[in-house]
Amino acid sequence: MEETKKSLLDDSFTSAMTLTNSGVPQVPDRYVLPPSQRPALGSTSLGTTTTETTTLPVIDLSLLHQPSLRSRVIHEINMACKEFGFFQVINHGIPSSVVKDALDAATLFFDLPVEEKMRLVSANVHEPVRYGTSLNHSTDRVHYWRDFIKHYSHPLPKWIDMWPSNPPCYKEKVGKYAEATHVLHKQLIEAIAESLGLEKNYLQEEIEEGSQVMAVNCYPACPEPAIALGMPPHSDFSSLTILLQSSQGLQIMDHNKNWVRVPYIEGALIVQLGDQMEVMSNGIYKSVIHRVTVNKDVRRLSFASLHSLPLHKKISPAAKLVNGNNDNAEPAYGEFSFNDFLEYISSNDFIQQRFIDTIKKSSP
User: Any idea which UniProt keywords this protein has (predicted)?
Assistant: First the structure.
């Protein structure tokens, strides 16, 4: 660990926050994207268009608890997962005070002196608690305008002592939010399983024992947002990602390969399907490709709570969704675990090839 820190320091580790605070008038060359990869904010670039903010599914989760309305909500979830791999939820049960406290604690953390945050720096993707910048400062060809702190979050008592001790409120406030999102995740997984025609307790034990990685992201104000990104196009390895955002910045790719801006809705949380869900559903639902743009004037914070099966537990297509009425049907994907994904990104550029593409089986 100490050697990793030393190598990062020797490599002139400079966070996006540090650059913004220093008042740089331009982004350094290492952050400048090739023209074909730039966000082209509001215009067309090589056939890929950024549309205006589009109406996307917003689902009232409180209606799941009303027997007469549950089937309607399950149908809404099914349509949202098929069409977008994404939806927003309101009345999700997480108090606004818990959300505000988590955002406040994250703000205090990212405002700490860089020397304090560097105590948690690592380029090792297997570290259970890791501070960094870009995606992986030591290996990225192009850097991304983001600082982050990632930490394992379930079961909370196992991991929380490793979390930042500064600011003093961090463990308590972010811990409450992490526990609340774990509960919400179980509710969402039940509803999504039901929407696929599976038992609502499908994989219940594995989910309860599963992994939760909380990625707390800071996207500082960027002097040239049209030529840089906060995060490149990617899909998440998880079964589900529950995203809290302080302002607009997330974009998803639609079926026509257009970039659609995800609106900011006060009090709502974003639900994104990940690679594990695509595999489990045998491709009925797809993980969503998304990216993050940056803003010239506004700092954006987000909490991405990534939920998956336990680290070494393999997920494979649900037998009921493979066979259906055809006993000779074949699964469209091989099995994989969260650890397999970590091994892949340790030695491969997942921007060039999505992990899930490596486990897809070719059509006969």
Answer: Cytoplasm, Iron, Metal-binding, Nucleus, Oxidoreductase
